[in-house]
Amino acid sequence: MLDILLHAGFSAFFVGGAVRDTLLGKPIHDIDIATSARPEQVLELFPRSIPTGLQHGTVTVVHKHNSYEVTTFRTESSYSDYRHPGQIAFVDELEQDLQRRDFTINAMAIDRHWKLYDPYGGQSDLHNRILATVGSSSQRFQEDALRMLRALRFAAAYRLRIDEQCQQAIWQHGELLQHIAMERVAYELGRLLQADELHPNLHMLKESRLLHFTKEKLLLANGSLRQLPSIASRAESTCWALLFLHFGLSSGQAAHDMRRLRLSKRLQGDAGTLLKLCEWLQQAVEETDAAAQTNNRPGLADELKQQWLQLLLQYPLELLELWLEQFQPFSTQVKLLQQLHESLPVKSVKQLAVQGKQLLDWSNKPAGPWLKALLEQLFIAVASGKLGNNKQEIERFVKAQNEDDAINE
Ligand code: ATP
Ligand code: MG
């Protein structure tokens, strides 16, 4: 890939995340290339290329089934809105390009012969586990305030200590975050949440006070951080749900913040459901505990089971199963529910041996709300073991009911 640019007489290097991850021996996900070729020239050299960000000099190139972000060497200046450079200029030298990059660990390049260019000591910072900006942190954050959140994200992802100067600058310029679009805040926050260790990273986020300064106010800012059990691998929706749980927000408050962060509808829905389930469990456990204390009734587990079956009718099965799996470490109750769930003969209406069409044939009635109600009734009966999940038994049950209805009418 680099060769094509080199043969055409341009210089070209791997830069950014790919270099960092190569040095760490981590898998690479996307590859950035910096080159002296101008965007038009890149477009001309590679037939399968898309001008993704021409004004910044970026072209996406598909080459031998890989996709590359190819960006022309550039400098940036006269930042005016605390985020975007007012002016960019294409230049011919790699050194000038590396200078505009945010952190030392992100300002390294590797050439065609695997020679490393590292003018700001990124490799030694990686080795010593330090995150430092290229040049004055204070100045770099005033140019682009998003870099403060990026600092937390990279420190979290690579377990780096943010150096003193950088930390001071975050304290000093935190309020500039008000100039950053909420979507960008959400993206960096999302990346921070996906890093291995959640609690120390949230602690760092809280300490930085950055959450106080977002463009639109977040309830998270006033949350107090709680230490909760940790979960190793986490789905994206779980990450968000955990953020709000750790900060002690209710599902309603979380919904408010997720809207402000412009999370996708799907994430808002999924994370919101996971949180509601946590609240449901809390309440159900408290109620059954209280009932157990007052009248020492057996069969409480059965009550919980009946409630769980109602949830199975109400929420998508995948989400309930995700919650069971991911929130198990949180409480023995979730573990018990998981066991109960696994033992169910059917887990959703779809798994019934009989579907709506068949019920319509048996009933001679036009379709209507009764159909859904009947399916749900059948589900509860089959799932709680009162009815076998086979056509004959279900047919007998339904017909007996039809006769009852006829008598009652
Ligand atoms: P990853 O791909 O894992 O998110 P990355 O380092 O490749 O990490 P990108 O956001 O893809 O991060 O950016 C690519 C490179 O562009 C960075 O490594 C950095 O050199 C530079 N860069 C990105 N955003 C900024 C910024 N706001 N200020 C300065 N340099 C930046
Ligand atoms: Mg990248």
From TrEMBL:
A single GO molecular function term of this UniProt record: nucleotidyltransferase activity
Keywords: Magnesium, Metal-binding, Nucleotide-binding, Nucleotidyltransferase, RNA-binding, Transferase, tRNA processing
Name of the protein this chain belongs to: CCA-adding enzyme
Leader sequence segment: none
One Pfam family this sequence matches: tRNA_NucTran2_2
Annotated family: Belongs to the tRNA nucleotidyltransferase/poly(A) polymerase family.
Database matches in PANTHER family: CCA TRNA NUCLEOTIDYLTRANSFERASE 1, MITOCHONDRIAL (PTHR46173)
GO terms classed as biological process: tRNA processing
Gene name in the database record: cca
Domain tRNA nucleotidyltransferase/poly(A) polymerase RNA and SrmB- binding stretches: 160-213
CCA-adding enzyme C-terminal domain: residues covered: 235-398
Residues covered by the Poly A polymerase head domain: 12-131
Cofactor: Mg(2+)
